[in-house]
Amino acid sequence: MKGGYFYGLCKSAQISKMTMRKNTKLFLHLKKWLEKAVLDYSMIAEGDRVLIGVSGGADSYALLDLLDSQMIFVPRFSFVAVNIDMGFDKEFVAYRELEKYFQEHQYPHVMEKTDIGLLSHSDFNRKNPCFLCSRLRRKRIFEIADEKGCNKIAFAHHRDDIIETLLINMFYGREISTMMPNQSIFGGKLHIIRPFAYLREELIKKFSRERQFPMVKNACPSSENSKRIFVKQLLNDLQRHNPDIRQNIFKAMSHVKPDYLPGLPKK
Ligand code: SF4
Q1: Least packed by Cβ within 10 Å: which of 4, 87, 154, 157?
Q2: Domain layout of the chain by residue ranges
């Protein structure tokens, strides 16, 4: 069993794992930017124990793979992977696939079967399944982090997720906010970190195809018609007119000029 880069693995296992993986140009590019984001936002400190959320989608497999690589500047840490099954698939195909992957790679992991997805789509909650779903899933992840002694939780949200969330919160929530690369919660007892904060979604997807992760399709009935899909399509349309639009929006979040925002009326 291991956690962090190669903690606890015997030498031959380390070598076989290293040779199995190809450090392609894309891998090195993603790792470089992941490390930069981790350092820029002080996401990981020496001795941290990180719970890594793995849904079975491309992004989360990529996060686990990259965080399990030898890094130059990021301090040593240990990790546990976690998957919360939402209960959509009665055959548990994705669940079993993921469990096999964790075992084959000797990743310490926690897998939990829940009915969070079904509950969130029940008659009493038809209007906003995502809200309840995210809330319940997150609550359980916090509990598991506590049970496993983790002080950080890593999610695979990338640069495009951060941009889309900004727009979703403006369009539907009437506020200017988004996901933070490093967010302190419970008075600093726990941190949510997003090591992919600088990474573009299309490159992560490309990397996932390159690595041939056993990805599973999201079985959630709301996954195809969410506000996020709408905003993503809108950005794709805008990008045809301005190829830099996503990068510009991301950069704009670091150039906020409160003096040029109306804010609240004085009276
Ligand atoms: S799309 Fe489905 S799985 Fe994702 S948050 Fe919404 S309800 Fe939950």
Answers
A1: 87
A2: 24-255
Class of domain 24-255: alpha beta
Strands (DSSP E) contained in 58-212 are 78-85, 109-113, 152-154, 182-185, 190-193
Distance CA 21, CA 54 (A): 20
Rounded to whole angstroms, the Cα distance separating 61 from 260 reads 41
Q: To test ligand 1's pocket by mutation, which of 226, 227, 228, 232 has the most ligand atoms within 8 angstroms of CB? A: 226
Specify the pTM.
Answer: 0.90
Tokens coding 27? 């891998």
User: How far is ligand 1, taken at its centre, from the CA of residue 18, in Å?
Assistant: 35
Classify residue 116 by its DSSP letter: H
- Match 């490093």 to its residue by tokens: 182
Q: What is the DSSP code (8-state) at residue 187? A: G
